[in-house]
Amino acid sequence: DSMDLERERGITIKAQSVTLDYKASDGETYQLNFIDTPGHVDFSYEVSRSLAACEGALLVVDAGQGVEAQTLANCYTAMEMDLEVVPVLNKIDLPAADPERVAEEIEDIVGIDATDAVRCSAKTGVGVQDVLERLVRDIPPPEGDPEGPLQALIIDSWFDNYLGVVSLIRIKNGTLRKGDKVKVMSTEQTYNADRLGIFTPKQIDRTELKCGEVGWLVCAIKDIHGAPVGDT
């Protein structure tokens, strides 16, 4: 979370992504694209747009508090969109943690098998590698035609005083290269792809984004309405 308001309220407001290369136990290196969606009840549309760009979802549940109402709503949205849902029990380092009870709660309330839910602590790092291994094992690779015409989904957009409108995008088909002409379908406006790249979580410039990748795009759009969330 990079916005002042997000830090102040302790919630995610704008979707954000991070890309990392992970060498799994099978010896292969996988590129993982994470999208941190808003979880708050006020941002359900933003959540659905983020999920539309994903193949799977991590259902992260506090091992002490259990399943919260909004977590449940977002999980059902993911399941309705046929995403592979991977249950994760976080904060197992806390004295109040009761992973067995919470795993049962997930099965009873959500209706997915949580007997082998990954147990981890984001604070201490315990179990984080297990989460990555589970992602590689259970979540399918992105679909799409790398050789097809460019098609990208706008996951979110925000205004930067220096760059103008920055859009978080998922490449559905084809490849987006710096300097390419892009057309926002709902507004019929055409722009040049001036800058693009990924978050690591730092904003890194790249010359292209390939099919299946999630990254950012700047193309001289001055008004946030010029890059509507959920558009192509």
Characterization of the model:
The protein has five helices and 14 strands. The chain has two domains: 4-138, Rossmann fold (3-Layer(aba) Sandwich); 151-226, Translation factors (Elongation Factor Tu (Ef-tu), domain 3). Residues 5-13 have low confidence and may be disordered. The chain is α+β, with helices and mostly antiparallel strands and 232 residues long. The longest helix has 12 residues, at 69-80. The relative contact order is 0.15. Helix content is 21%, strand content 34%. The two termini are 25 Å apart. It has helices at residues 4-9, 44-52, 69-80, 99-109, 128-138; strands spanning 16-23, 29-36, 56-62, 84-90, 118-119, 151-160, 164-173, 176-177, 181-184, 189-192, 195-199, 203-206, 208-209, 214-218. A five-stranded antiparallel sheet has the order 6-7-14-11-12. The chain has a three-stranded parallel sheet with strand order 3-4-5, with helices on both faces. Strands 1-2 form a two-stranded antiparallel ribbon. The radius of gyration is 18 Å and the shape is elongated. Strand 6 and strand 7 form a beta hairpin.
